[in-house]
Amino acid sequence: MKKLEINSKAKALIFDLDGTLADTMPVHFWAYKNILLQYGINFTPELFATLAGVPAVDTIAKLNEQFGTKMNAEEVGHFKEREYEKIMHKMKPIIPVVELAKKYHGRLPMAVGTGGYNRLAWKTMKILGLDQYFDVLVSFDDVTYPKPHPETFLKCAELLGVDPADCEVFEDAALGIQAAKAGGMMATLVTDYYRVSIGEEI
Question: Residues 85, 120: contact at Cβ < 8 Å?
């Protein structure tokens, strides 16, 4: 596997959380799978891949369109988050990305920009011991427009006091890469640097 390095022009680093620093995607997958069974939806890794980076409530709305179901997006989205919280202790760190963050801690300003909810994002960081490396975290609760809109990452840059063009974003989802580029930032897809294990038992 290739070695993950930063761009030599980067003056600040911004990390997505789920699927980038934390291998939470298998946990999210099982949370959705367990919840959606009762609505007659067979949630597959392939289906999940088409929804990477989409917040829970929007995911349920998209599944309604696709399957003709009439789930209450708000209710089922929050239900899924509760299911996720029950099993989130099973998540693991994504080693190459976490090592990179630790390496540049104290050397470059760093932030986390996630499409997840603030409370769960900090809980993830604590489970993996990452909360000590980051002071700035921008979540779904802190923005008006989630990814692929660049607001999440632009807010990170603003809080770090660094020009967006000097920020490098690390992401696992196409929507996040789109958001970074729309914000005029450097973007690196991290899935080339680790094995994605969605669909396997956790």
Answer: yes
